[in-house]
């Protein structure tokens, strides 16, 4: 069998449907960008802002969801102090943002779901602003490359936002309140704005400090490295930049288990008491991370883990995979392959992030191909069978959804982006052979660590690294209405 399941719109899941490579997630139209957004190209920071140097980005306007995010701001760092009241269903927060404007402007606009604003401060002075149409506008002039600090205190009842997808397993995006008064979030392609003011697009990665205060007996969980606990306040820190869709938050009466992964990697598993039966499956994460590290290079972050929530899907949230309850409940291959897929994203999607949603195939193609290779090795299937099933799946998805390089914004999570990208990588692998292909994959991750990339930069990298012109192959697989013919 080549694949029993696949998944995920933040990656997402669908029930197993047979014995071929499977899929999930999207992107959109227009030709590729001409360059990647490399933080090294941004001007150096000085003074107090030098501490947030690793959070620099070169944001671009997203062509798929242009109403989300802005290229006028580069948020360097978010410090989020959050408090959750389950009885009142009220989230209170103080968000401190260190921001580098990319151009002069008369005001500042960020994505934010309507909460009641308690106070606004810019560089320590009171400011005025309002939230309308899911945008926080702060009436303060800013100058290009002159960083400033914005502090927003707020409170209110969390609300989700619709997911732009018709997938059967899709769920409203952002911060969800469950029946027990707990919280959890999945937010690809957007939705972070449902719990903090944010530049909610993939091209603006930032550093994070998050504290979560919860009632006694509850736990607060976020992405990043655990940074201690003060009573009922849980703290997390991300020293590697994070795209907003890869942040996560969960609050509930969780149980916690720690373990060790490859090379001493600290692992943490969070789950509800009812889900304790899933723990043996969760603990297999160390095996998946070991396999991925051998193929694609060292795990790119200082810690890893999984939090199991009540959702129907899964999300590769950075350092802390958010795994919907539906996935481990399915058991077997579905649990195993989805978990490995999400961890594969930590190499492809998290440390190397697409510049815009047009290039989501860079995430999903690589993660799905890693999933296929894992199952291929585990089940000892033939290369010919892998090739055949990849092409059959690709042909079916192109007929239904079109080419992966031109995804429909209303169909986020469509499987053409997963399968088309993975099938393209399969052909590249067949052409280069194992040694050159895995060297290419490892170099792509290691040389582009903590950056945002696109189709043009990937194509240029492949051509430079191999000494061959693979532009026609890559373009054909991303743009053709039908599955490209076999090479050679």
TrEMBL record:
Its cofactor is: Zn(2+)
Keywords assigned: Aminopeptidase, Hydrolase, Metal-binding, Metalloprotease, Protease, Zinc
A Pfam family the protein falls into: Peptidase_M1
Task: Report the family membership.
Answer: Belongs to the peptidase M1 family.
Q: Which GO terms describe its molecular function?
A: aminopeptidase activity
Give the reaction(s) catalysed. Answer: Release of an N-terminal amino acid, Xaa-|-Yaa- from a peptide, amide or arylamide. Xaa is preferably Ala, but may be most amino acids including Pro (slow action). When a terminal hydrophobic residue is followed by a prolyl residue, the two may be released as an intact Xaa-Pro dipeptide
Q: What is the recorded name of this protein? A: Aminopeptidase N
Extract the InterPro entries matched here: Aminopeptidase_N-like_N (IPR045357), Aminopeptidase_N-like_N_sf (IPR042097), Peptidase_M1 (IPR001930), Peptidase_M1_aminopeptidases (IPR050344), Peptidase_M1_dom (IPR014782), Peptidase_M4/M1_CTD_sf (IPR027268)
Biased segments, Basic and acidic residues type: 383-401
| Taxonomic classification | Bacteria, Bacillati, Actinomycetota, Actinomycetes, Streptosporangiales
Residue span(s) of domain Peptidase M1 membrane alanine aminopeptidase: 282-477
EC class (word): hydrolase
Q: What Gene3D superfamilies does this protein map onto? A: Neutral Protease Domain 2, tricorn interacting facor f3 domain
Aminopeptidase N-like N-terminal domain span:
76-246
Q: Which CDD domains match?
A: M1_APN_like
Q: Which residues form the signal peptide?
A: none
Question: Mind telling me which PANTHER family this protein's record contains?
Answer: AMINOPEPTIDASE N (PTHR11533:SF297), PROTEASE M1 ZINC METALLOPROTEASE (PTHR11533)
This entry's Enzyme Commission designation comes to 3.4.11.2
In residue numbers, the region (Disordered) covers 13-41, 383-413
């Amino acid at each position: 069998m080549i694949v029993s399941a696949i998944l995920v719109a933040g990656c997402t899941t669908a029930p197993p449907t047979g014995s071929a490579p499977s899929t999930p997630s999207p992107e959109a139209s227009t030709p590729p960008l001409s360059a990647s957004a490399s933080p090294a190209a941004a001007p150096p920071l000085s003074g107090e802002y030098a501490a947030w140097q690793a959070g620099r980005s070169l944001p671009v306007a997203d062509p798929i969801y242009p109403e989300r995010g802005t290229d006028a701001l580069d948020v360097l760092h978010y410090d989020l102090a959050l408090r959750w009241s389950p009885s009142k269903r009220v989230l209170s927060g103080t968000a401190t943002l260190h921001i580098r404007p990319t151009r002069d402007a008369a005001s500042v606009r960020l994505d934010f779901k309507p909460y009641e604003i308690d106070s606004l401060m810019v560089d320590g002075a009171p400011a005025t602003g309002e939230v309308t149409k899911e945008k926080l506008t702060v009436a303060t002039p800013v100058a290009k490359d002159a960083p400033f600090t914005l502090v927003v205190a707020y409170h209110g009842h969390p609300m989700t936002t619709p997911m732009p997808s018709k997938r059967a397993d899709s769920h409203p995006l952002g911060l969800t309140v469950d029946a027990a008064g707990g919280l959890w979030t999945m937010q690809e392609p957007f939705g972070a704005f449902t719990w903090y003011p944010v530049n909610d697009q993939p091209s603006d990665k930032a550093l994070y400090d998050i504290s979560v205060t919860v009632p006694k007996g509850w736990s607060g969980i976020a992405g990043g490295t655990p940074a201690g606990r003060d009573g009922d306040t849980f703290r997390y820190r991300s020293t590697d930049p994070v795209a907003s869709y890869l942040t996560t938050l969960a609050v509930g009466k969780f149980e916690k288990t720690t373990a060790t992964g490859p090379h001493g990697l600290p692992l943490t598993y969070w789950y509800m008491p009812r889900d304790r039966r899933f723990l043996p499956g969760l603990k297999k994460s160390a095996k998946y991370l070991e396999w991925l590290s051998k193929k694609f290079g060292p795990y790119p972050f200082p810690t890893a883990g999984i939090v199991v929530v009540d959702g129907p899907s899964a999300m590769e949230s950075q350092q802390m995979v958010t795994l919907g309850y539906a996935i481990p409940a399915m058991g077997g291959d579905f649990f195993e392959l989805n978990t490995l897929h999400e961890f594969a994203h930590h190499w492809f999607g998290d440390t190397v992030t697409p510049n815009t949603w047009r290039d989501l195939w860079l995430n999903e193609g690589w993660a799905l191909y890693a999933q296929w290779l894992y199952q291929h090795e585990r089940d000892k299937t033939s290369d010919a069978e892998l090739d055949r099933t990849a092409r059959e799946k690709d042909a079916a998805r192109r007929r239904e959804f079109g080419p992966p390089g031109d995804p429909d914004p209303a169909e986020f999570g469509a499987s053409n982006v997963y399968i088309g990208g993975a099938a393209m990588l399969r052909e590249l692998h067949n052409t280069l052979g194992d040694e050159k292909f895995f060297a290419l994959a490892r170099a792509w991750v290691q040389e582009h660590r903590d950056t945002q990339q696109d189709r043009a930069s990937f194509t240029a990298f492949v051509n430079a690294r191999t000494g061959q012109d693979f532009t026609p192959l890559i373009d054909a697989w991303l743009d053709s209405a039908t599955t490209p013919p076999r090479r050679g």
